[in-house]
Design brief:
Blueprint (H helix, E strand, L loop, with lengths): L9 H9 L12 H13 L6 H8 L16 H29 L3
Length: about 100
């Protein structure tokens, strides 16, 4: 299964396939927690930036370069509009939640 397609529109995805692009998979568990820890490490000055922290923490966990599937399953075509809705509505919802918490909710 090619999860790359899950976040790219058809034209961008197929352009990458046709141009020989590859992707890599991180073989590390708990990637969300790792990302939060990298941001914290950069904020407290333990690393110069999130990018330099990622080079150190994630590079050893990269899997092999993989070419995208040139014929993505139909399920991705059905899921993409749902992903776009989630992507568009999450930032405003998160901002509203933070605002409510600041007001004591």
């Amino acid at each position: 299964m090619d999860v790359t397609y899950d976040i790219l529109p058809d034209d961008v995805y197929l352009d990458k396939v046709n141009n020989g692009s590859t992707y890599t998979v991180l073989l590390r568990e708990e990637l969300g927690a790792t990302g939060a820890a990298m941001m914290a490490a950069a904020c407290i000055g333990a690393h110069e930036s999130v990018a330099t922290c990622a080079d150190r923490w994630l590079a050893p966990s990269l899997g092999p370069a993989t070419a995208p599937d040139s014929t993505p399953p139909e399920v991705y075509r059905r899921l993409y509009p749902i992903y776009r809705t989630i992507r568009a509505t999450t930032p405003p919802a998160s901002s509203a939640l933070c605002g409510a918490r600041r007001k004591g909710a």
